[in-house]
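Is this the right way to post C-alpha cells for a design question? Let me know if I should format differently. Anyway, here goes:
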C-alpha cells in the first residue's frame, strides 16, 4: 500500500524538500512526503536504505548547520523538515531561517519544551496547565530532602535531553535516592546538572499530537506506545517497541480536555512569552482520576508513533507542514482514515543493551505483500544487495486494518515472513486496544 497521488508538480507548484534524520520516523515521513503531488524532489540527510526508495539520500552531517545551509542554497530547497529533536535543540530552524530557508519544526527557544523538563514544568505553573507537583534542584542534598518530604513513589528526571533514558520512576525511597545520586554523579552529563523531581502520576499513559503554527493548534491523533522491551510490559524501557493509533481511551471528552487544558494554553503561553511554538507538539499525558495531566512534551513526531500516524493520514502532508510554517493553520483541516494502524518494532537481540550489527535480514519483499502492510526501515544498511541490521531498533512492521485486531494480525503475519534469526519483537503490541475491542463485542 502507498498513498495515492505520486505524480510530480501537478498543482503547478514545484517543491523541493530536504528531510533530516535517519530512523523509522523519517522513513514514514519520507513515504508520506514523497506521495505529495506538490513535491518535485525529496532528499533525506543522512537517510537509510529504506528511505532511499522514497528520497535521494545525501551524506550531510546534520549537526553541521553550515553544510546543511550550503546544500539547501545549492539545490534551491524550499522546505526543510526536521525529524529528530537534537537538531531542533541546536537551533537548526533558527539558522535556516536566518538565510531565508523555510524549516518545519520549532526554533531553539521553543524546542526547550523538550530540552528542559524544568522549563516545561514552570510553563505549566504559569499557565495553569494540569501536571504533577514538582521541584527543580541543582544539588543532590536539596533533591534528597525534597524526596524525603514527599515520599515514594516519585519520579526523578534529568532536566536536559538524555536520549529517553533520563527518567527514573522510583517506586521506593532507596530507588529515588539512587537515581538522584546517579544523575548528580554525571550519568547524563550536562543534561543531569539539574534534576526535576515530579509527583508520580497514576493512570493510563497516552500520547497526543498536535500541529502548531505559533498561534493555532490542530489535533493530529492520539496513539499509545509500548516502552518496555518485553511482552506484558516487562523489562527495561526502550525508545519504543511498537505503537497503535487511535487509542480508544482518548474519548471525545478527553480529547477536548487535552486540547483545551494542555495544548492550547501551551501554545498561548509560548506566544505570550515571545517564543511561539511551531511544529509538532507531542504531549505525554497520564489519564488520571482527576483528568488528563501532562508529564512531558516532545517537540517532534514520536518514533514509532509517527509511523502509524502517517499510515492513517489521508490528507497530503506537505500543505500542512507549509501551513504550520506560514502561520496558516486556522484555515486548515486534516483528514484521517478511520481505520486503526499498528506498528511492531523489530530490534536486534540484546537491545536496549548490547547487540551486534551486520546480521542478515531476509524475506522483506514477501512480507510487504500482505494487504495493508508497510515496512519502514529504522536501522539498516545494505551490502551486496542484502539488507543488514545496523542499529538497535531495525525495522517497523506497520499495518492498517478495519480493527486493531486485524491490523495486528497483518503486522504479525508479515513478521512471520521475515527471516532474521538475530532479531526479536514483542508479540503483544496493541494489547490494551485489543482487550478493549474484544470487551465491546
Ligand atoms: P520519558 O523518558 O520522559 O518518556 O519518560 C519515561 C516514562 O516514565 C514515561 O513514558 C512514563 O511512563 C514515565 N513517567 C514520566 N513521568 C511520570 C510521572 N510523573 N508519573 C508516572 N510516570 C511517569
Amino acid at each position: 500500500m502507498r498513498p495515492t497521488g505520486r505524480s510530480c508538480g501537478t498543482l503547478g507548484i514545484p517543491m523541493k524538500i530536504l528531510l533530516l534524520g535517519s530512523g523509522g520516523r523519517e522513513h514514514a515521513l519520507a513515504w508520506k512526503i514523497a506521495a505529495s503531488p506538490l513535491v518535485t524532489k525529496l532528499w533525506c540527510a543522512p537517510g537509510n536504505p529504506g528511505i532511499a526508495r522514497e528520497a535521494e539520500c545525501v551524506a550531510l552531517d546534520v549537526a553541521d548547520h553550515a553544510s546543511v545551509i550550503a546544500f539547501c542554497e545549492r539545490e534551491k530547497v524550499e522546505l526543510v523538515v526536521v525529524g529528530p529533536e537534537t537538531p531542533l535543540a541546536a537551533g537548526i530552524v533558527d539558522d535556516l531561517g536566518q538565510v531565508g530557508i523555510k524549516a518545519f519544526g520549532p526554533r531553539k527557544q521553543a524546542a526547550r519544551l523538550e530540552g528542559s523538563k524544568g522549563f516545561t514544568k514552570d510553563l505549566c505553573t504559569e499557565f495553569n496547565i494540569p501536571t504533577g507537583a514538582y521541584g527543580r534542584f541543582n544539588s543532590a542534598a536539596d533533591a534528597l530532602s525534597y524526596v524525603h518530604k514527599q515520599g515514594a513513589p516519585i519520579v526523578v528526571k534529568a532536566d536536559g535531553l538524555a536520549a529517553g533514558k533520563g527518567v527514573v520512576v522510583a517506586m521506593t525511597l532507596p530507588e529515588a535516592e539512587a537515581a538522584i545520586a546517579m544523575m548528580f554523579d554525571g550519568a547524563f552529563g550536562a543534561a543531569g546538572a539539574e534534576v526535576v523531581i515530579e509527583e508520580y502520576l497514576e493512570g493510563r499513559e497516552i500520547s497526543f499530537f498536535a500541529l502548531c503554527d505559533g498561534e493555532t493548534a490542530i489535533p493530529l491523533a492520539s496513539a499509545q506506545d509500548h516502552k518496555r522491551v518485553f511482552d506484558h510490559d516487562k523489562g527495561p524501557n526502550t525508545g519504543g517497541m511498537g505503537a497503535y493509533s487511535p487509542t480508544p481511551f482518548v474519548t471525545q471528552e478527553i480529547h477536548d480536555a487535552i486540547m483545551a487544558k494542555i495544548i492550547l494554553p501551551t501554545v498561548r503561553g509560548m506566544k505570550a512569552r515571545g517564543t511561539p511554538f511551531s511544529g509538532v507538539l507531542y504531549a505525554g499525558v497520564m489519564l488520571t482520576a482527576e483528568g488528563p495531566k501532562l508529564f512531558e512534551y516532545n517537540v517532534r513526531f514520536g518514533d514509532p508513533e509517527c509511523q502509524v500516524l502517517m499510515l492513517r493520514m489521508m490528507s497530503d502532508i506537505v500543505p500542512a507542514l507549509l501551513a504550520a510554517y506560514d502561520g496558516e493553520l486556522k484555515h486548515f483541516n486534516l483528514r484521517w482514515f478511520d481505520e486503526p494502524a499498528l506498528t511492531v518494532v523489530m530490534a536486534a537481540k540484546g537491545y536496549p543493551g548490547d547487540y551486534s550489527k551486520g546480521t542478515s535480514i531476509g524475506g522483506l519483499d514477501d512480507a510487504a505483500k500482505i494487504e495493508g502492510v508497510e515496512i519502514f526501515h529504522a536501522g539498516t544498511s545494505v551490502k551486496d544487495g542484502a539488507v543488514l541490521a545496523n542499529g538497535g531498533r531495525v525495522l517497523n512492521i506497520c499495518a492498517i486494518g478495519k480493527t486493531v485486531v486485524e491490523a495486528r494480525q497483518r503486522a504479525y503475519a508479515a513478521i512471520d515472513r521475515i527471516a532474521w534469526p538475530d532479531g526479536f519483537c514483542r508479540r503483544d503490541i496493541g494489547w490494551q486496544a485489543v482487550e478493549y475491542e474484544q470487551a465491546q463485542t
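Format looks fine. Someone answered above. Worth noting: Residues 252-272 form the longest helix (21 residues). The pocket of adenosine monophosphate is lined by residues 132, 155, 164, 167, 169, 198-201, 205, 227, 284, 295-296 (CB under 6 Å).
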